[in-house]
Write the structure tokens for this entry.
Amino acid sequence: MTPRERRLREQAQRHRLILTTAREMAESEGWDYVTTRRLADRIEYSQPVLYQHFKNKDAIVHAVALEGFAELAAALRTAREEAGDPQEALGAVARAYVDFAERGPVLYEAMLTLDPGEDTGEDTTGAAGTPAPLADVLAEIRQAVEPVAAGRDGGLLAEVLWSSWHGLAALTRAGRLRPDPARQRLAALTDALLGPAAQPV
């Protein structure tokens, strides 16, 4: 390994450590507790070293959010691909989305604060300025919707479902909805939106 390769590997390891530690601190104490000073103390690096990777806390939260969207896209993809038929796939993707938000509320909170215009110094932008991991999430939802959309705008339906799933997840987390009938709500939402058209085509 050349000195340059070793240096790049060490930089990547520090980058990974910063993000992992930030997530751990947030899961333990909440995002308000996470500061660059506390983070530097926890990982035993000076703040100038931390700033070599991220210009401020917002940039760290942004990077964590992008990781979250990448993880969510992978979860939706797995749910869709393991389903037996198109209608089952849409239900599986809906459940996977809400389950993801429920399992990782702190990570999901970071994802909700994502500023698409935040400059992290990384090439994570997809079409129309949308961060690539977020675009991947929307693409997975759209792939689940289109087979049962019966010729309607799959992109539009995907956006409506995404908005609705987020609303259900947020209201449930806030205690405004009872958690028990979550799956029935998801099924009712799909039926109300797609109706008889929610059949394989």
